[in-house]
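Journal club prep — side note

Before the paper discussion, L.F. wants everyone to see what a predicted structure for a comparable chain looks like in token form. Sequence:
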Amino acid sequence: MVRVTEKTREKTSRPLAVFDLDGTLADSAHRQRFLERKPRDWDAFFAAAPQDPPLAEGVALALRSTEECEVVYLTGRPERCRRDTVEWLAAQGLPEGRVWMRRNDDRRPARHTKLDVLRRLAREREIHVLVDDDELVCDEAERSGFRVVRARWATASAALKDAQEREGRT
């Protein structure tokens, strides 16, 4: 028998604040060079993720969000990056929360994979906000009725945007 405590009840009834990682909480600019080559070096791109500096504006927003929401993370990173990702989140002092990742073999554009997860989450919980830097993800989320904060505090990478849309890798 599972005992439902007041803390458990509070956590499951709070709305969700959903945060992207790369370009929202993590500054991935130092590893963009791996996507600018032909062929793109995805293994090196993801292997360098643990060295990402945090993006102060995104981290501050995630921390503030805990006042009224449960924070969860929705990333286009593949599942094989889970351990590095969870360790990075903890090292930055970010709130504990479920991390939703792309299946290793899923190459759909992020605007499709992330919206699938958001819709699943919305069946069970209120989504207070999605915070993401990918304009196509944000556009699709808004069209679907989600409240969006566009993370425009990091330098956008043309190579990353192209890779997200054409190769479905992040």
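L.F.'s comment for the group: DSSP finds seven helices and five strands in the chain. Keep this in mind when we get to the figures.
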